[in-house]
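Submission sheet (multi-component)
Chains listed below:
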Amino acid sequence: MSDQTPEELEAKRKAVEEAKRKAAELRKKKAEAENPADDIEFQKKKAVAEAKAKAAALKKQKEMEKSEQHSVAEEEDVALAKKKAVAAAKAKAAALKKQKEMNQNKVDQEASEDDVALAKKKAVAAAKAKAAALKKQKEMENGADDEASLAKKKAVAAAKAKAAALRKQKEAPSSDPTDEKAKAIAAAKAKAAAAKAKKAASETEEPIKEESPSPNQPVLERYLHIIQENLGDDLLEEAYINRLAKDVPTLVAKKETYLKVAQFLKYNELLAFDYLSETHGTDFETHMEIYNHLYSFQNHQSVALKVKIERDAPVIDSLTSLWTGANWPERETYDLLGIVFKGHPNLTRIMMPDDWVGHPLRKDYEPYDVEV
Amino acid sequence: MIRTEEMLLNVGPQHPSTHGVFRIVLKIDGEVIKEAKPVIGYLHRGTEKIAENLQYTQIIPYTDRMDYLAAMTNNYILCHAVETMMAMDIPERADYLRVIVMELGRVASHLVWFGTYLLDIGAMSPFLYAFREREVIINLLTEISGGRLTFNYMRVGGVKWDAPEGWLEKVREFVPYMREQLAGYHDLVTGNEIFMARMKGVGAYSKQKALAYSLSGANLRCTGVQWDLRKNEPYSLYDRFQFEVPSFPEGDALARYNCRMAEIEEALKIVEQAVAQIADGPIMAKVPRIIKPPAGETYVRIESPRGEIGCYIASKGKKEPYRLKFRRPSFYNLQILPELLEGENISNLIAILGGIDIVLGEVDG
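Outcome: structure written.
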């Protein structure tokens, strides 16, 4: 495999992708014939909705318990049942809405519009029916053996509350580890409430950061100036300071000028980026991206060099001719993302076996197994 | 008449001297290596792929399993990357605890290297001493984190547990003890004639070559480059401590040995100062329950015992990373191996491979 040219590799990859696409289509068709496509999805949703509803009901029950411990039992039951029903309905509605959106998204990508409408309708109808049935069943249950189920639920709720309180106590950032864990639940509850409030507060107050110019702004301008003076404009797509990465000056090269820019960054005596700290790729779904972190031991400065490549048949120049250390990382990028590096001395898989199908870190990767 | 022919020799993947599952296919002519082809990936667990479906806190245990000889630094790099994105301030006590455990981890990691490396080249007893001292460190780290090797100790915003009562005192006592033992190691090994003959000039390379191959850690410092991210791009509290960056100009196996032995001493210095400076206080910053770094990307790098470990995160503002990538020093350092082995005698294979100090969990990701 090592003596194949990138073109051959590309052709091979294309063939594999075509085969995979076909396989996926077939699989889908088969699944559709057997049962509605999103049945599994729906089951999942249903389970989630059920769980949510139950949780909500339990929570409400707990609250009731606390506030109206001395009130008449019958009243409590009625109110409880009502609240439960409401909660269940709400949860179901939310789940349905979510599911609808999900369906929309999913199907938009995959199937024709007719299928979408049909599947959606089917799913909605099924969900409604099931939700109704469930509600009924719950009501029946409540009516039938209220006392027993209530007691049971209460016990469960108490246990859950205890567990939650314990967990919260453990997690609460300011909690003193010397505290005894089995200490009064009330204290834990208070703490949990406080933590919740704190969280809410921190969520509401958006971090309003004053955008003071980065200390590295002059550095970036210097780079740009040197590049422009020697190579002219039109080499870079973008150049900015990445505030999230310790203010590293970031250059985004064009695909055609990537190697040229890299060469210049290394060999220009004013820049002299002689050390390649890191190189890897990312699948951003709209495009692929290569990220390099370079360092200059002469100037003690860093730069990030990026390049965007199209996602289908991604090909880019290799940096191995400039930094020998790019060899294995580029092989890794090829292996896991399918990006072909032109001019790489030995572009073969490095992590996965040679006969592996697909590139695992691509966002559209589907595991291929002959036996499935 | 003597006839020689080329022969293929397969070393590994299961071989004690590779310290994990690592395979080299050698083309040999007599006892001289003509070509070496490393084969890796036997321990590839797809950490980066798994991480795309996990919340940040859930990823921390996976980092333990990359460089399992210095898991504290791995914990730190992930937390550090997320904290950098979120511009988080870490409580001082938490930072001190982090530094102490990371430096203890560095000492433990170098002790494993020291012991096993000498075992590889035929000296049995240093291994026993090194592991005895390492056990003390592991006990200390177990006491504070609950894990022997996979600590899962750090969190985004601080550390999970405060130091138990008397722990800092034990660490303080450990430093002079370790110094004494270290002097013993030097008596036992350094300067030994056989050892020097095995090390001197073996697997030598120049500074230019080291930089071209993106080497880091002791593999870079053994060529005379004084480069340590703790000193040159200080993170955490490293700008508060007095320590040296040992470097040796020869670029051979002996220089790498000297580097690592000197680094143990420097790490002990840092531990000593950190224990003296640490004060009471909180060990966790105020962190939202669900950690959501802002949309964007970050790349940070720190100094692990094996070199420069980096972490790249591409975030879309969700609770899971969109893409997580670790720059694993062993992976980069191992690249130079085929070039070092070419033309070497086969008996130097282990001395050269061991000198790079790789951890296969980290090579394969």
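Remark: The mean pLDDT of chain B is 92.
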